[in-house]
Write a structure and sequence with these properties.
163 residues; mainly alpha; 5 helices; 55% helix; globular; DinB family protein; MST-like; DinB/YfiT-like
Length: 163
């Protein structure tokens, strides 16, 4: 995140939104500069790839903000609502495409959440009652975790580049 000053104090909502934006940017930064082949390289036994982590994050934005918080049926969300399959990136999608998808989903999430109070609650079929505050915290930890995964994948990738 190209921000010369970090937000370290202020109202709770400002801090939560800053940290969510920060982790979004950190996740994107882990794939910037990777080739299409590098971003798709599987370096662990699972299907996890750097590009797949960003693709999954776009799904998480849609699931939690469009579907759960905004109340849209999954069929009306602006992208695939496929759960764990959200890590799969098609051959015709580029790194730039996936980053743009995540940024669109993040922008829509900001718009949906803008007029919702932190204590406002919604129902999730598996989690039960969740507040906007809880959704912010969930996605901060999820995106931070995935950025860490992708940092390691990137480090492994860069270590194998010819010198």
């Amino acid at each position: 995140m190209n921000n010369p000053t970090r937000t370290t104090s202020g109202p709770e909502r400002q801090l939560l939104e800053y940290m969510l934006d920060y982790t979004r940017a950190e996740l994107i930064d882990t794939v910037r500069g990777l080739s299409e082949t590098e971003a798709r390289r599987r370096l662990v036994p699972s299907m996890t790839t750097s590009i797949g982590l960003v693709k999954h994050a776009a799904f998480a934005e849609r699931k939690w903000f469009q579907h759960i918080l905004g109340g849209l049926p999954e069929s009306e969300c602006d992208g695939a609502m496929v759960g764990e399959a959200s890590f799969v990136v098609s051959d015709d999608e580029t790194v730039a495409d996936v980053i743009a998808e995540f940024e669109r989903a993040s922008n829509r999430a900001r718009t949906i959440a803008a007029d919702v109070e932190l204590d406002a609650t919604r129902q999730h079929p598996a989690c039960g009652t969740v507040s906007l505050r809880w959704i912010y915290l969930l996605l901060i930890q999820e995106f931070a975790r995935h950025a860490g995964h992708s940092d390691i994948l990137r480090e492994q990738t860069e270590a194998t580049r010819p010198t």
